[in-house]
Amino acid sequence: MSTLEKTASRAPAPRERIFVTDYALAVDLGGTKVEAALVDPTGSLLSSSRHRHPTGPASTSDQLADAVSLAVRDALRALPADATLLGAGIGSAGPIAGTTGDVSPLNLSAWRDYPLGTLVGTQVPGLPVTLRMDGICIALAEVWMGAAQGTSNVMGMIVSTGVGGGLILGGRVIAGATGNAGHIGHVAVAGFDDVCACGARGCLEAIASGPRTVTWARGQGFSGETGEQLAAAAVAGDPVARAAIERSAMAVGRAIASASALVDLDVVAIGGGFSHVSDDYIALVGAAVAGHSDFGFVTKTRVVASGLSGEGPLVGAAALVHRADLIG
Ligand SMILES: [Zn+2]
């Protein structure tokens, strides 16, 4: 009888059956940086394994590949001698190309249909590699370790330099035909026609992201240039800064209400740097949802702050390995 079977025969709590030396390689590719780390089955990062390298819109394809490869190499070097590597999970900025591992991140123009999964796979030969959109990884992380634990119909969101999201419905990841379901940042919000980098108008990202909110405020006379300056001005009583923050939150709330009208969400967990622009940002978004319509199935959707730290994207990427049961 194996050790695992002996443990199971005593009907222990599930955690007893976890081998904490079984690690996932987690990779998070974003528009400004790529990070990699080793994550155990309890969702804890091996701190010595966490490494990052810059990406950025001006990077060439070779520079991006080098950044990913170096981050992965450094993370793998931290694997303890007695540990087992189970596989790699990759969260990538979208769009992605299905579940093949190919990516075309909007803000990394050097990569179009680039085989990121294959690139990482060369560093973990023989092991499974799973790639999904970063928004899906955020949703996974919130259900696994964050603010959406115990719920089945969830959107995880990031409001930062961009706006991203991912869906879990009926307890399963919804990836869609091309892997891009949950792209809430490119849902059009009624009443706006801001031009978006994707080519459309009125996208949530073009209205509510940190940089676009600052741009709107500057058009109204605000002289600052960063989200931090906008936050400070609002605290100091600048009405334009406050109006910009409320405009962003209202647009996010409207988009969430529309998403909930379509797929009936229990909870939306919001993280990302700009979600901290004011102490009441999450409450403002929640109020926009609660007051959106007379449909209780829309207004019941709870809006909460992310339960994750800055490790969330890596935890979510690791969930592609450790919580494969959630992947549709
Ligand atoms: Zn767009």
Overview of the structural elements:
Helices cover 35% and strands 20% of the residues. The longest helix is centred in the C-terminal third of the chain and has 25 residues. Helix 4 packs across helix 11 and helix 6 packs across helix 8. With 328 residues, it is of the alpha/beta class. The N terminus is likely disordered. Strand 5 and strand 6 form a beta hairpin. It binds zinc ion (ZN). Zinc ion binds next to helix 5.
Proportion in helices? 25-40%
| Small molecules bound | zinc ion
Topology pattern, helix = H, strand = E = HEEEHEEEEHEHEEEHHHHEHHEH
Strand content: 15-25%
List the total number of helices.
11
Q: Which strand order does the major sheet show?
A: 3-2-1-4-8
Arithmetic mean pLDDT:
93
Which of globular, elongated, flat, extended, rod-shaped describes the shape?
globular
Q: Would you report the number of β strands?
A: 13
Secondary-structure content class = alpha/beta
Low-pLDDT runs of 5+ residues are 1-13
Major sheet summary line: 5 strands, mixed
For the record, give the distance between the C-alpha atoms at the N and C termini, rounded to a whole number.
32 Å
Radius of gyration: 20 Å
Give structural attributes.
328 residues; binds zinc ion; alpha/beta; single chain; five-stranded mixed beta sheet
Topology:
Elements: H1 3-9, E1 22-29, E2 33-39, E3 51-54, H2 61-77, E4 84-92, E5 96-97, E6 102-103, E7 114-115, H3 116-121, E8 129-133, H4 134-145, E9 154-159, E10 163-169, E11 172-174, H5 204-208, H6 210-219, H7 227-235, H8 239-263, E12 267-271, H9 281-290, H10 296-299, E13 302-305, H11 312-322
Bound molecules: zinc ion.
